[in-house]
Amino acid sequence: MKKILFTGSGVAILTPMNADGSINYKLFEELLEDQVRAGTNAIIVCGTTGESSTMTDDEHIECIRVAVRKINGRIPVIAGTGSNDTLYSTELSVEAERLGADGVLLVSPYYNKTSQRGLVKHFSKIADAIGIPVILYNIPGRTNINISIDAFVELSKHPNINGVKEAGGDMNYFSKIIERLGDSFDVYSGDDGMTVPVMAIGGKGVISVAANIIPSAMSEICRLCFENDFKAAGKLQIKYNALFDKLLSLDVNPVPVKAAMNMMGKNVGECRLPLYTMDDSSKATLKDLLLKLEII
């Protein structure tokens, strides 16, 4: 059996910015510590929510370095090192391993529109170059490519490829992955609102955007699922369903989650262009919801 990187709630942690758009590393360390205190089970750094697509190489590497140093082995740190350039992703993954990351998250290569055979070769080449576990990241809404079930089956044979963050939004697809691969492949929900149903059919947890805002609640939902108390877990998920929806529908992730954190007094700054601040109407909607949930 392959080593399970983590079970439960992994936060796709955001990257706080200063007023001039530079990364606020001091606040980043504080956010990381907050997550550990709240019971989060893993840190996923430099993902979509972390705005890795607009980071320089030096910033990307420094965020991984800071996260590994601050967490200091208390929970796993998983570094987003995916790219549409296989060589670049390989080099970044090797560097993440050197820095002490416990695993890497590899998004499907975007824009190139490769074949399923190309996907298998891409992910396998990266995994061949490192000795730490790989979680694939399937998000066709952003990459315009979907990893097929047959490709998952082939990739699962690689000793370093452990599982997938599945963010296609299709429960039937989750079922097919788990049916074909069972416990040989760790499946994580990439959508907060699907955490309970995914775990009910064998998922290992969630890689969560909402955990930036409600880390304890996301960890508790997962704990209840592991205890087979799906009624209580479902009740807690339903409580936050409107938040899960608004974090994705009011604007593009991570614009709403940063706005929410700022409303909470965390001062995480704005997103980097081309992502832009929400309009006043959307901010008012989000604020009303946070007040209703007693988050602010």
In short:
The chain is an alpha/beta fold. The chain has twelve helices and eight strands. 46% of the residues lie in helices and 12% in strands.
Task: Please explain how this structure is put together.
The protein is of the alpha/beta class and 296 residues long. It has a single domain, classed as Alpha-Beta Barrel (TIM Barrel), CATH 3.20.20.70. Helices cover 46% and strands 12% of the residues. The protein contains twelve helices and eight strands. The chain has helices at 25-37, 57-71, 86-99, 116-128, 140-143, 149-155, 171-181, 195-200, 215-226, 230-249, 255-263, 280-292, and strands spanning 8-12, 42-45, 77-80, 103-107, 134-138, 161-166, 186-189, 205-208. Strands 1-2-3-4-5-6-7-8 form an eight-stranded parallel barrel, surrounded by six helices. The chain is globular. 47% of the residues are buried. The mean pLDDT is 96.
